[in-house]
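Possible regression after last week's pipeline update?

I re-ran a chain I had predicted before the update to compare outputs. Posting the input and the new output here so someone can diff against the archived version. Not blocking, just want to make sure nothing changed silently.
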Amino acid sequence: LASVAAGGAWFSNRHSASTTSTPAPAVAITATKSIAVMPLVNISRDTSDAYFAAGMTAEVTNALSRIPGLRVASGTESAARAQAASPIELAKALNANMVLVGTVQREGGRMRVTARLVNTADGFTVWSDMFERESKDVFKVQDDISNAIVAAISPELSGTPPTAATPAAAA
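New output (post-update):
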């Protein structure tokens, strides 16, 4: 019993110490912001490109999870519920303010990813873009595009205006 009480006291002190710490940096998400990343949909003629769509979903989710203060619904949670509801309904069920939806496709040696950031409160698209890359190195393509998406939508998620334009497609 004494060890339980000591553990409770430690937890209370740890919690109160964390609430009196310095505020988060201004670049961090200030309000409780959250996003659900829907599984990107493969719209290529070749159904074997579904692996690329799954990988892109995972990479975007991973990159978004690095933004301080942003809650990101896991890809598996989003995927498990994706069959049952529209993306907006699903995001609301996950208590997400925003939802990221998109498609992937391949044509010859090029991969194209189209992504949209939608506000779950009103259903309006707040950002959308298309990213196209040569498909020689799939991992590099996934890294480049996921980082470009995160860089582009970070201002929308934090409520700060963008500082510079993000190029949609690079060769």
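Follow-up from reviewer: compared with the archived run. The chain has a mean pLDDT of 75. Marking as no regression found.
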